[in-house]
Design goal:
This protein is of the alpha+beta class and 93 residues long. 32% of the residues lie in helices and 22% in strands. It has helices at 2-5, 18-24, 42-48, 66-77; strands spanning 28-32, 35-40, 56-58, 85-87, 90-92.
């Protein structure tokens, strides 16, 4: 609804979810202790401060070979991916 009605309007939205701000905001301000400490477009903020995206996958069982998943992701996304955790049936990049 917000995306449909935002043309020609200024909308101030507060959220704790960066993905929501990314989709809805033309400019995003980040606050710390009640003060705006950074302001810019989503792309600017990601280039300046962002660390990328996290992808979490649920494996059918803990015995699934994680290397096959890594190889597949590298073939699709490149070798910049980094495995953050591989615990039981959940693997995070």
């Amino acid at each position: 609804m917000l995306k449909a009605y935002r043309n020609g309007r200024i909308i101030v939205l507060t959220t704790h979810y960066m993905d929501e701000a990314d989709v809805l905001g033309d400019r995003i301000g980040i606050m710390n202790q009640g003060k705006i400490v950074c302001l810019g477009t989503s792309l600017f903020l990601k280039k300046r401060f962002g660390v990328g995206y996290n992808l979490t996958l649920a494996k059918k069982t803990s015995r699934v070979d994680s290397q096959e998943i890594i190889d597949h992701l590298e073939s699709k996304l490149g070798t910049d991916i980094k495995k953050l955790s591989d615990i039981s049936t959940e693997i995070t990049f």
